[in-house]
Amino acid sequence: MKITTIAAISALCLLTGTYQTSGWQNQGASLNQPVEITFQHVHKGPYGTAVDTLIDAFHQQHPHIRVTAVATESGDYEGILRDLSTGSQFPHVVQAGYSYTQEMIDNMPIVPVEAFIEEENMDTSDFFPELLSLGTDKSDTLYSLPFVASTPVLYYNQDLLKAASIDPAKLKTFDDVRQAAKAMTKGEQYGIYYSFTMSGNWIVQAMIESFGGRMLDDQKEIAFVSPEGEKAVQHLVDLIQVDQSMPPVNESVAYQQFLDGKLAMFVNTSATLAALQREAEFHVGTVAFPSDSIHPRKIPVGGNGLFIMKSTPEKEKAAWEFIKFVTSPEGNAAFAKDTGYMTVRQSAVEREDLLGQLLREKPEYRTPYLHATEFTRWVSIPTSESSAYYIMQNNIIQALSYKKTALQALEESAEQIRALRPIKNR
């Protein structure tokens, strides 16, 4: 998909007046020096290019501010937290996964965006309310604005499903998907892959909660050791060991198998859609993440919000102008088009000049929005070590290898995670 041009974004900005500033930019203008701020994010490759395009468009509208983007070396949210915890100087705008909102609030010097919103009497009703709430603490103070969102979706190779006479519209439950996967597994071709190690335990959480379980209880204690949790992990075990319809490989290998036409269905983030369509030589379709047909589907929201770090009033205001720009309908829609992420703005979905036409002409892009009423918080296990995620991953991998039962994998995960040091405020 062609990267949205700077001129196109800027034209929309000028046309709508969305990016008019608050008049503060003349403060310090006698020095004729732009206010310089840094923006730390996780995006690399085409996603990083989309970030750079957005920043260039911002510079055209805000010549008094210069934003330097810094992609964290590891390319993940844990890497940003590590950088923040060990660095001597904070960036001015930080991107953090929704599962880390509370950790950011508890441990980092943050300026709540609510203060700027109240000062400008800014209307936030255009944000998807389910996404806006992900930036709040227990008292409902808004600390961050949502930048992008994603959900796990089921991608399918239309050619392979058609050859097997499988209607993708009927892939509604885990069992529907399992039966279809068995039907399409033959020779070197596999039926399904759930990216269970993606972003910590994001997809595992979606499975456990869609089977009726929970990752944590109301007191933030581990709750995934349950019949529902066991059923979710056992489902993965059965796909690999019993049906042999899911390849025993890591996510990157499965991704390539899907592109090579050797994997019929691939459960991954909706933010992968644009990349898959660029690279695949077949039509890539999408359907909603499955349910168990008994419990309400629960979809942990992926993606990230933007935080302002404490610095100087001038730089904090510059950071706010940048966040307003990239979360506006125009700026946010441009990034969504370039990457496949969901926009966080309802009007961007509706407007033909933003995402309306794309969503109408390419229904595969509409699928993540079907989950909007089913969103739940992406859980971060509250320890001071990100290894909590990897502990669970490693135990599940051992279950998939028949070295443990599904229940043992969950029980030992819980035991090992509880032994980690509790998180402490910075």
From TrEMBL:
It is found in: Cell envelope. It comes from the Bacteria. Its main location: other. Pfam families: SBP_bac_8. Signal peptide: none annotated. Coiled coil: none annotated. One of its GO terms (cellular component) is cell envelope. Keywords: Signal, Transport. Belongs to the bacterial solute-binding protein 1 family. This is ABC transporter substrate-binding protein. It comes from Brevibacillus panacihumi W25.
